[in-house]
Structures are given as C-alpha cells and as structure tokens.
Amino acid sequence: MKKSLSYGLIFALVAIVIGVIMGNLDFIFMVTGLSGLGPLFFAGLLSGAFVSGDRNRANYHTENKDSRESRHQLMMNSLWFSAPNLLTAIITLAIFISNT
After folding, report:
1. Among 26, 2, 20, 17, which Cα is nearest to 100's?
2. What is the pLDDT of residue 72?
3. How far is Cα 10 from Cα 4, in angstroms, rounded to an integer?
4. How many structural domains comprise the chain?
5. What count of other Cβ atoms lies within 10 Å of the Cβ of residue 62?
6. Of 8, 53, 60, 93, which is most buried with the most CB atoms under 10 A?
7. 3-class DSSP state for residue 51?
8. Which residues, in sequence order, are CB contacts of 92 under 8 Å at separation 6+?
9. Which domain holds residue 36?
10. pTM tops 0.70
C-alpha cells in the first residue's frame, strides 16, 4: 500500500515538474488524469464491479482464497497508485477553470 501510494505521488510530482517546465497545464491534466483513470478502471475490473451479482458470487465461490487475496491486493495497490494522480488532475482542472 505504501509503495503504491509513493509511486503514485512520485509519478504525479514528475508530471507536475515536467508540466511546469513546459508551461503546459494541459500536459499535467492529461498525464495525471490518464494515470489515475487507467488504474482505477483496472481496479474496477479486478473487484468485479462491472459484472452482475450472480457472476460475482459465482466467481467468488470458484476461486481459492490465495488467488482472491492476491487479486484484492492488486486491486488495492491500483487504487492507491491512482489516488494522488486523480487528485492532481482534479486540482489542475480547478486551476485551469479558475484561470479562464
């Protein structure tokens, strides 16, 4: 969890630094937005959020405990990576809207 959050923060900070050097808020928004939404969508796939309840229940009962725990851990790592990137994208969007 801490590694994923750290990697997400580092990725967002690198995008901010590059965007500030380029003088381009759009770059910061696009990079952090995509790197936030991609892992968020991936976590949704891993959690079973896009399938029906019957399918989710069947998947739960057919997989073993180890694979379920590893899938859950990967889902949580994806969410923790995406959190600082989504926050950065939202803040960048607010700055962009306030400047126009």
Report:
1. 26
2. 93
3. 10
4. 1
5. 8
6. 8
7. coil
8. 25, 28, 29, 32
9. 2-99
10. yes
> Residue written as tokens 């928004």?
29
pLDDT tens digit string along 11-64? 999 999 999 999 998 999 999 999 999 999 999 999 988 888 888 888 888 889
Alpha helices in the chain (DSSP H): 2-22, 25-47, 53-62, 65-99
The answer to whether residues 7 and 79 touch, using CB atoms and an 8 Å cutoff, is no
Which three-class secondary structure state does DSSP give residue 47? helix
Structure tokens belonging to residue 39: 């892992």
Token readout for 5 is 């959050």
Q: Give me 81's structure tokens.
A: 């990576």
Q: Read off the tokens for 83.
A: 């959190």
